[in-house]
Amino acid sequence: QVQLVESGGGLVQAGGSLRLSCAASGDMFSINAMGWYRQAPGKQRDLVATITRGGRTNYADSVEGRFTISRDNAKNMVYLQMNSLKPEDTAVYYCNARNFVGTLSVWGQGTQVTVSS
């Protein structure tokens, strides 16, 4: 079993920065991609950014150039550095881990990010 715990959310003014962390534990041997998704009230959960075990990244167009995902495989940690935050970035941010074959997808409990205008 893999467990994910997010931290680092909070309230920030527009233009500010936050850094989210995701601590993974358990059987990480089969985990490849890890990433961040977000869900605003009344909306679906959307991709923010993903990173593979080898370091290949993918970003949503809406955050490209503002957010940076990184990963420390030795510590089983994934980070999301969020800069130039906008009110539309307000959402619950979820950490996700998936195995190589796509048969396992694990979610954290989420952390709230609120950006005030």
Describe the 3D structure.
The model has no long low-confidence stretch (mean pLDDT 96). The strands form two sheets. Strands 2, 4, 5, 6, 9, 10 and 11 form a seven-stranded mixed beta sheet that branches. This protein has strands spanning 2-7, 10-13, 18-26, 31-39, 46-51, 57-59, 67-72, 77-82, 91-99, 105-107, 111-116. By secondary structure, it is mainly beta.
Question: Short summary of the structure?
Answer:
The protein has 117 residues and is an all-beta fold. It contains no helices and eleven strands. Helix content is 0%, strand content 57%.
Question: How would the blueprint of this fold be written?
Answer:
Layout: E1 2-7, E2 10-13, E3 18-26, E4 31-39, E5 46-51, E6 57-59, E7 67-72, E8 77-82, E9 91-99, E10 105-107, E11 111-116
Parallel strand pairs: 2-11
Antiparallel strand pairs: 1-3, 3-8, 4-5, 4-9, 5-6, 7-8, 9-10, 9-11
Task: Give keywords.
117 residues, mainly beta, four-stranded antiparallel beta sheet
Number of separate helices: 0
- Helix/strand-derived category reads mainly beta
DSSP strand count: 11
Estimate what percentage of residues fall within beta strands: over 45%
Spatial gap, N to C terminus:
40 Å
Q: Any idea what the radius of gyration is?
A: 14 Å
Oligomer: single chain
Approximate shape:
globular
Main beta sheet strand tally, sense and closure: 7 strands, mixed
Identify low-pLDDT runs: none
How do the SSEs run, as a string of H and E?
A: EEEEEEEEEEE
- Helix content range: under 10%
Mean pLDDT: 96
